[in-house]
Amino acid sequence: MNAPVAQTPLADLEVIICSADRRRVLARADGDALRLPRLRPTGAWPPPSSQLPGAVAAETGLLVALLEPLDSTLFVAEPVGGEPTAGYAWHDVDAFGVGPVPRWLRRSAPSTAPPWYRAGWFAAAVAWLDPVLAERGVRRTGPVTQIRHWTTSTVLRAPTTGGAVFLKAVLPHLAAEPGVITFLARQWPRAVPEVLAHSAADGWWVTADFEAQPPARDGAAALRMLARMQTATVGRTAPLVAAGCPQVSLDDLAARVPALLRRSQLWQSAGVDRAGLTGIGMWLQDRCAELDDLDLPSTLVHGDLHPGNVADRPDGPLLFDWSFASVAHPLLDLAGWLHPLAEPEARRQVGAYLDGWRQVASPGELSEAWRVAKPVAALAELVKFADLVDRTGPDYEFDYLPMAGVWARRIRDAVAGRDAHLTGWRDPQPI
Fold it and tell me: What is the dihedral of CA 121, 44, 195, 152, to 10 degrees?
């Protein structure tokens, strides 16, 4: 979901593979100790959660479905096929005297756990998928695998006689995504996924293969496509709202500032003390008002735009993961997109994006709007991650607090005029 963070060495991941009755756990004897499968991700993309099932199978011989992460380096999984190899065997949970297994057993299941963190969800999703495929005249040709798995959503991939398909499930407040994609596909069928089936009751849906892999390499082309989609929906946002897109005004964002400032946890990593928060809050609300005065129209906003949510097709970019789509100020989408980019490339891509808005405003007006919008876009990102912390609860805040801290630091540095990592946060040259 979030924009990729700067590359750092990846920690080893441990996996508790448990039987359905939670009485046996897979491990390998190492002297007098029992060792859980320990795996090292090979890179930041695809994300570690999608690498784990394949890595577990290679290490242990078992096919597994991930359940919940207990922290950023420890996952629980259930077996869905295969037999243990390489010295791995099932051991009674009482044999694990200390460490992650007894801590997991003592842990109460969080009430905020999404359905896909619960044993049996994977099997239920596969059981729903197979007849859906049969209705379309295709069948699976191999096992279903997990592509993404965390608190916000899960994505499964299934090979079929008609090509690969993907099943996605999301938190309830994000479930408008298939309706939004279906609306966008009427005008841009090659720029968004193709929705093949949808179960509103379960909060999941199936899309066709993208025929390409993220992340995007041609960022300027992706931003030009976004600009075309946004400008085409200026004054025509009612169908998006009807499809489930929330409307978020600049006044709405400004109104969120006081509550955000009271959340010291969001600002601690940014090194902002209580005395400094008042000034930050007033400054942010002034920027929201200033951007509102520039009068760019509200339109379609992707809400989670970064190169990992775009795939390069031969006939143009495909934008996916529209879970956070809204009707809001269009420039909010640039914050996440530019987050990982070096300054020269970020400047080139901003220019390409603003060029797509020339029929709405002059280059000078657009450049000024982006200068004002940068910290407001960072505020929108901070609001998003703070909301996710609230919705998923303290047991899963490790998924979101690091990125919340990134955006709190961006805001802090914007106020001080010293952020050089998001293009133009210092006094910008004309774009």
Answer: 50
Q: End-to-end CA distance of the chain, in Å? A: 29
- The beta strand positions in 230-315, using DSSP E, are 299-301, 310-313
Displacement of CA 214 from its chain's centroid (Å): 13
Give whole-number Cα distances, 96 to 17, 60, 101, 119, 400, in Å.
Answer: 13, 19, 6, 21, 31
What superfamily does domain 121-208 belong to in CATH?
Phosphorylase Kinase; domain 1 (3.30.200.20)
Decide if pLDDT at 211 tops 80: yes
Name the E strands within 83-227.
88-92, 145-149, 153-158, 165-170, 195-199, 204-208
Q: How far is CA 140 from CA 63, 80, 148, 202, in A?
A: 17, 16, 20, 21
What tens digit of pLDDT does each residue of 321-355 get? 999 999 999 999 999 898 878 788 888 999 999 99
Domain 13-107 part of CATH 3.90.79.10: yes
Whether omega for the bond prior to residue 143 falls within 30 degrees of 0, making it cis, is no
The CATH class of 219-416 is alpha beta
Q: What is the pLDDT of residue 43?
A: 67
* Contacts of 24 by beta carbon, 8 Å cutoff, 6+ apart: 18, 90, 91, 92, 93
- pLDDT recorded at residue 47: 65
Maximum distance among all alpha carbons in the chain? Answer: 72
Domain ranges of the chain: 13-107, 121-208, 219-416
Q: Please say whether the beta carbons of 322 and 192 come within 8 A.
A: yes
**Cα–Cα distance for residue pair 301/259, rounded to 1 Å:** 24
